[in-house]
Each structure stands twice: as C-alpha cells, then as structure tokens.
Amino acid sequence: MKVSFIGLGVMGFPMAGHLAAAGHEVTVFNRSGDKARRWAAAHGGAVAQTAAEAVADARLVALCVGTDDDVRLVVAEMLPVLARGAIIVDHTTTSAKLAREMAALAGERGCAFLDAPVSGGEAGAKAGKLSIMIGGDAEAVATASPVIGAYAKSVRRMGEAGSGQLAKMVNQICIAGVVQGLAEAVAFAKAAGLDAATVYEAISQGAAQSWQMDNRWATMARGEYEFGFAVDWMRKDLGLVLDEARANGARLEVTALVDQFYAEVQAMGGRRWDTSSLAARLRR
Q1: What distance in Å separates the CA atoms of residue 195 and residue 200, rounded to the nearest whole number?
Q2: Active-site residues: which are they?
Q3: Counting CB atoms within 10 angstroms of each CB, which of 57, 164, 193, 225 has the fewest?
Q4: CA distance 272 to 149
C-alpha cells in the first residue's frame, strides 16, 4: 500500500521503519528535515518537503506528532490534496474532542480519520509490539489494521471517533497510579533496611507483579531515569485525562495527586526523565 508517515520522533521513526520493512511504499515528512533524511537513508523510503506533498496519492496516512494543535495544522494542510477514500490514522495522544472534530472534517472530504493512540513506549515501537486502541469507522479500522499491524502486537477498535483517545486516558490513569505505588514501595523497602533486589524477587511472582515492576523496579532503586516516556509528555497526557474527567464527572483523586507529584519532578529538573522518576521525590 502507498503509505505516508508524518512525525518521526522517538516513536514515529521506528514505526515508519516497520511499514517500510513490511513492503509498503512509504513517504515520510518531519518538521526537521535532517531526521526525515536519516530515516530514508536507513529504510529506503521517500522524503517529502511538506505534509501535503507527503500524502499525495496515499491510501493511508499515519500521524505521530505532538499536540491537538499540531494535528489540526497537519490535517488542515493535508485534506485539500488527500484522495477520497484515504484513511488518516492519528497515533498522537490528543483530546477526544479533537479526534471527533478531525473525524467530522475528514468525513466531509470523503476520507476517514481514526484516533489510534498507542501504548508500549519507545521499546514497543522499536520492537514492533505496540498496543493500539482505535476510535472511528469500523470499515476504515478493518482496512487500516493489517497495515498498522506492522508495528503492533494488538489493534483494538474501541468504538466511534474519540473512543481510542478515551481508552488511552484509561491507560495513563493506570500507569500513574502503579508507578507512584512502585516509587513508594521502593522507598519503603530502603527505609526498612531491605535489599530492593531481593524484595523484587520475592514479590514479583505474586499479585504485585506488573510490567512497570518488571521493567522499572531495579532502575528506580538505582535512581536511573534517563529512558522511556518523558515526564513532560506524561503531564500533557494527564492534563487531557483531568480535563475529560471534569467534563464526564469521573473522580480521579489519585491521578490528580500524581500529576502534582510529576510537577514536583519537573521542578527538580526532571522534565525529560522517564515516568518512573516519581521515585526521585522520595530518595533519601
């Protein structure tokens, strides 16, 4: 399939690479042209100078940019030249409101817009094992799923436009609570004079086990936070979550508290530390 990929950050770069490796004809665009040229040198695809140029004749366009406004700008540039029947798959984490707005605009053009945020982080993107939750037209999801399966281990339609973003919010709520619990557990173990590695071996095979424990317990205990999903990004996501909760009436007391803890981490200079840096607040 002729595919375009817009946004070659830490997630988009490997995701687009998996599309090329799967045999799709891939054209990429990135605001930083150097990164797009590096991608093409590594994967053999084509580089466009603008988003509009990138999507010419594309049947599927994947986005992985930064914010609601970034998505609006890119879609506004693309839609006038996008072929009828094309599918836009937006992997950016945005508000559900933005997803519904873009789906309506794309529909007026005879195209489909799918909100398809991902979970799995940079490691999942590099391994091609992301979990993708999608909102939008069922037929468009069925068409897009085999293509985006090049970088996913799980692709699930959650419902109509916006529901993919809502499911990603659920994901971030879960992560926020689990990581804070782990940070406190590591701090408690150390304060109690226990060896953190031995504690992990004792509890990681029981009910406390989680992906976060398996992948972040040891590094939290060592005070290492220079990898993974950045605190700035998590605060952006939690802002979306809390805005949605104010609208739908959900009570997110723990999530709101953890968001403030991340603000403390930012003030400590940890804006680019990964989300497990909640433990840095508690180090003695």
Answers
A1: 9
A2: 168
A3: 193
A4: 29
- The two tokens of residue 87 are 């599918």
CATH class of 2-161: alpha beta
Q: In this structure, which topology does domain 166-282 adopt according to CATH?
A: N-(1-d-carboxylethyl)-l-norvaline Dehydrogenase; domain 2 (1.10.1040)
d(CA 201, CA 214): 10
Q: Please give the full DSSP string across the chain, using - where no structure is assigned.
A: -EEEEE--STTHHHHHHHHHHTT-EEEEE-SSHHHHHHHHHHH--EE-SSHHHHTTT-SEEEE--SSHHHHHHHHHHHGGGSPTT-EEEE-S---HHHHHHHHHHHHHTT-EEEE--EESHHHHHHHT-EEEEEES-HHHHHHHHHHHGGGEEEEEEEESTTHHHHHHHHHHHHHHHHHHHHHHHHHHHHHTT--HHHHHHHHTTTTT--HHHHHHHHHHHHT---SSSBHHHHHHHHHHHHHHHHHH----HHHHHHHHHHHHHHHTT-TTSBGGGGGGGG--
Tokens standing for residue 122: 């940079």
Q: What is the reported pTM?
A: 0.95
Contact 89, 61 (CB under 8 A): yes
The 10s digit of each residue's pLDDT in 192-204 is: 999 999 999 999 9
Pairing of strands 118-119, 130-135: antiparallel
**For the chain, domain boundaries:** 2-161, 166-282
Cβ count within 10 A of residue 209: 12
pLDDT, tens digit, 9 for 90 and up, residues 235-273: 999 999 999 999 999 999 999 999 999 999 999 999 999
